[in-house]
Design goal:
single chain, alpha/beta, 18 helices
Amino acid sequence: MKNHNYSFLEMPDPEPWPEPVDGQLLLDQLAGTVRQMAVLPRWAPEALALFTPHTYAFRLRDVSTYVGVESPEKRCGKTTLLGVLGKLVNRPILAANISSSAFFRVIEEMQPTLLIDEADTFLKKRSELKGILNAGYTLETAYVVRVAPEMKSAGSPPDNEPPGTVGMHERQNRGSRLVRFSCFCPKAIASIGRLPETLADRCIVIRMQRKTPNETCERLNRQEANDLRRKCARFVQDHAEAIAQARPQMPLGLADRSCDIFEPLAALAELAGGEWPENARKAAVGLSLSVHENNPIGSLFLDLLVLFAEAKADRLFSRTIVAGLSRFVDRPWGELRRGKEITEQWLARQVRPYGVYPRTFWAEGVSAKGYAKEDFKELFKRYIPQSEIEALLAEDAEIKQQSAGTTPENSGAADAA
């Protein structure tokens, strides 16, 4: 008999901490730990501190939170961060090299926390996995349907069946049926460059940067990590019913999907108490705004709005817009260029998917192709963060006040007069 050198995958749960756990202190410890282990952007330690106990509690909620870790280049700490999470989260499985079929089977059987590194190459030619990931964050849609063999009861072989044909008899009785596999579980997905847009939209996105020589990171002690895991298990065990029933207050103005993603974390924050409910809301707003403000197409639309505002015009020729955009090449939309020159054709390719096309019009005795501000009106509303628009309006108001010989402090009085 052939000897196979493999072992079955086992995921023992940590033994819960022997006494009740103070949720506020636990989250403080988790945030402090990830802060020491990796250089992170603002509000990321708080979000990851809440994500960690969520991995022990996700089966109590209808949404399972995803974390997306993006880095602009190598050696920015994304793999280190996944390693830290791997020591803290519940049932971690590193899925850097896994087939589509094993992907949903391991979720169905193990109910793990999946840690996916190098997603930029891992998902490149695996459209099926992209679909599974996109569907896997809500309980209602988090499943795949596959055809699986079904062994029928073969019973005893017929009296006239020749010896040695039992296997054939069993195969003749083999059928198949549709089987539903769950793909519902927490996931942390790391990528060099941007995650696919549909996947990033389902994640709490954390953008890493390479640390400076003055920034240092520590290594996570195994015993410390094990203690934190046991405390997470005990906290969730003691508050299971409250976690399942919690309906936390979410920040006003936060997009519906962002609310869905952050709500399981906000539920844990409210149970912990102290500053954590407010920390959760600030993390939701801060990290969501960061994503929008660094969104390439959003930054492009913002700069188009600036060009229309500067020109005090409702229509601009394409060549005028191209010349204006050339001043902003260091903006996030610069990555849309992929090294190509900014031209009228490039501009048309960027805005065409959003239903905006150049038109020919006359201005100052010249006829040429260009764009109307009105065509971008809905796009400006949908893709430019409100915080950016407010900052732009404030800057414009300040310029007008200065040109009128007033200041922000006395302009109200001047207007009243």
